[in-house]
Amino acid sequence: MIWHSYQLDDSILKTNDAVSLLKTERGLVEIGKDGLAVAVKLDGVVRGYVFQGRCKLALDTIVETKDGAIGKPIEKEVKKPFLALGTSKELQQNLSIANVDDLKGMGYENSQQFLTEARELLSHFSRRRMGCCDFSADSEYSIFAFPNDSGKVDILLSDGSKLVYKAVGMVFIADGNKTVLRSPEHVIVSDVGKCLTIRT
Fold this sequence. Notes:
This protein is elongated. β2 (19-23) and β3 (27-31) form a beta hairpin. A 12-stranded antiparallel beta sheet has the order 11-1-4-5-10-12-13-14-15-16-17-18, with helices on one face. The relative contact order is 0.17. The chain has one domain (3-168). The protein has 3 helices and 18 strands. It is mainly β and 200 residues long.
């Protein structure tokens, strides 16, 4: 994929109801009702959105070892605009045109303020090197970029049973029963009851 080819639409939309953007055995990303959205396009086709609103992120990043469970689940509310690529067609049916009151409800005086933040996020994401993840063009992938407190973005990728989460201080990879967790304290590789732990 050519990340820098993505372009933002000009129309500001809103969610008519709460929507699950990702729902798997290990992860959930949900945007609440009346959240703002602007379409992200590639070659004129909508590939995803930049959202702003009440977003819930929940991930099961626990690895079971013979010494017990290592890691902890991630549950947080995302308060800044975030990027979601690979969203479903059902989502488009749950969006309508936002008005000035919708923008003000999210703290924006006008649409340009939101679009400026959305462009900055898309630009920041586009500069990242994503070569470690091979998602084919026709796969049912989802890619999320969540701004963090260090001025960078946390990345979440999902494709069927595969899930990759990269945040400050940790990397978590799951593919079916296989899991890898890297933190400042450990590198843990687990596969159907077998587990290797390396202390860093």
